[in-house]
Amino acid sequence: MWQTRKRMLKDVKRWQDQGWISDDGAAAIARDLESRANPFGTAGALAILGAVLIGFAAMSFVAANWQDMPRLARLGLLFAGLSASYGAAGYLATRNMDRFANAATLTGVGMFGASIMLIAQMFHIEGNPPDAVLMWGAGALLAGVALSSTAALGATMPLAMLWGGWQQSLQDGVYWWFLPVWAIVTAAYTWHRWRPGLHLSGIALTLFTICLGFLSWVGGSHVTVALLGLGAVGAAFLGRYVLQKDLEDDSIVVAGYGMVTTFAGLFALQFFETTTLQGLILLAVITLALLLAAIYWGVKNENRTIAWLGYTGFSIEVLGLYFKTFETLLGSSLFFLVAGIIVMALAGAAYKLHTRSDLMEAH
User: Fold this and answer.
1) In contact, 134 and 163? CB cutoff 8 Å
2) Is-contact 198 241, C-beta < 8 A?
3) N or C: which terminus of the chain carries fewer CB neighbours within 10 A?
4) Which DSSP state fits 247?
5) What is the pLDDT of residues 42-70, one digit of tens each?
């Protein structure tokens, strides 16, 4: 993001020198870009790394001396660490030192997780091990919401994914209870309007959906995954073109995750399940057509994310088909020849369309 801001500032300076914008306008644009700057920054990154190192140092010290401490001293040490971390976070927040407050909150989250594990060990508490991770995530979520800490909120979704994955490994079938937890964490991200957190939610839900196809479930689950992805893409374009224009940015994000989900389902159908040659060809044609449509839309609308997702998927698909049909070199060479001709034809059509649009704008 800082590279984009730096490049935009250079463009503004160039436009100012050429007289396209006034000095006051350039200054206003620079102030607006600065107000949108990433609040994390280098200082914030170093503070977070320092918090992680301090947390590991504290846990290592406690672990090394744990057996030699009286039980009351152990509890006092854990409570003191938590109080100091969250107290420092609150103090730093009141001084408008948000980056360092984030670091202190993250230290407290780490201390809270260590406290859960150590107290369970100290009192020989037995139960369902993933529940400890769920409790840790709940503490991180509470700290993130109460202290408006993006660092703590950022730790919540990975902890939820760890909990859900751990629970999944202990049972057959799909662990659907992950979805309510995912919804709660996503609601917290939405309430704080934290877009990186929403991306974490998108990644988590995408992985959960893709995993549906590989879990013991009803037949045709990869088909279900592909259809769910297509549904997400359809909903994204419905929001973009039919409902509200202010959903444009969000719809592109949803479409991107839907593309990944659809491609994962189709890819699994082709290369992880037993298919006939005719079935493979049909699925390959559908997959490549969807990817080419995504690339075309991304290029036409100057959306790099969609275009590069399409390019990446296209490359993976072609590589997979090559290895799948390696033994029939003649058939694979014919396939790639036809695919190459189709892509070149689409490239020519896209070029003509772009040229025609430029001529219409010129007139």
Assistant:
1) yes
2) no
3) C
4) G
5) 566 666 677 667 666 766 665 666 667 77
